[in-house]
Amino acid sequence: MTPTLVQHGLQRSGPSGHPAPDGPGSGARARDWAEIQERMLVPLYEAVYQRLDVGPHTRLLALGCGSGLALLMATARGAQVSGVDMDEPRLRLARERLAPEQAGGGSGESAACLAHGGPECMDSPHRFNLVTAFHPVGCVSTVDGLASSLQTATALAERGSPVVLGGWGPVERCATAGVLRVAQRLADPSLPLDRTTSPAAAGWRPSSRDDLEELAERAGLRPDGSGRVACPFGYADLPSAMRGLLSTGLFDAAMQVADPAQVEKELSEALHPYQRADGTVWMPNVFRYLIARTR
Which of the listed residues 109, 212, 218, 273 has the most CB atoms within 10 Å of its CB? Predict the structure, then answer.
C-alpha cells in the first residue's frame, strides 16, 4: 500500500477534526517550504552570487523572496537586501530571519526591507543594482505577471544593472520533472485562480529552451549571459519529500480538482523510484539562470 501524509501523521487537521491538506497561505506549509524545500536552490543562489561578485557594494531587490534564504545568503556576503513576496506566511518567516523588528521580535536597525506584494510596494531611498527572480519559471500562469513585475522592478534599478531569472533546466536532466507531471496531469488547465491560490497553482509544465530569454525580452531586458547549476532535491524520507513538494504550490490546482488523498497517493508513487535503501529520497536536477541587463 502506498503511504500517504495521513498515514504518516503529517497531514494537519481541518476545522471538523478530519485530516486536511495545508492550503495556500498556510503557516504550516510556509514552514515546510522554509525547513524542507527552500534549501534545494542554494547551489543556484551561490553560483549567481559568486558570478556577480555580490558583496558590500550590492543593493539587491529580490522578487518572490519567499522565506528569505537567498536574501540571508546575500546579507552574509555584505549586501544590502530588500525583498517582496505575495505569500504573507513565507514573508513573515523572512522577517523573523532578516528584520526581527518588522516581525515584532527585536529592535535596532533592520538588516532588510521586506514588503508584502510586488515591487510597486517597495519604498526605497536608493536605486538597486541587482534584481533577482529565482523562483523557477515553468508555471503556466506566471509569465505575464512576472514580466510586469520585472518591468516595475527595473524602473527601481540603476541603468545596466543585472537582473537574474531562474528556471528549470532541460527536462531530461531534471528527475523532479517526472514527479511534477503528476500535478500537471491531475490539474484541470481551465481551473480559474481565486484570491487565495498561489500563482504557481495554475500548474507546472516542462521548461522550453528559450523560456528565460523570452521573458527577458517581454520585460524589456537585454540578455547578457547564462549558466547551469546542479540542484539535486534531497529529502530525509518519503514524507519529507511529499511535504516539501506540496509546499511549492505546484500541486494546488490538482488538490482543488482531484481527491487530495489521490494526489498524495500518486505523488508518493512517483517518488518511489528515487527512494534509496536507507529511506532517503534523491532526485538530481539541473537549473538554469539567465543574467539580463536593464536598459
Answer: 212
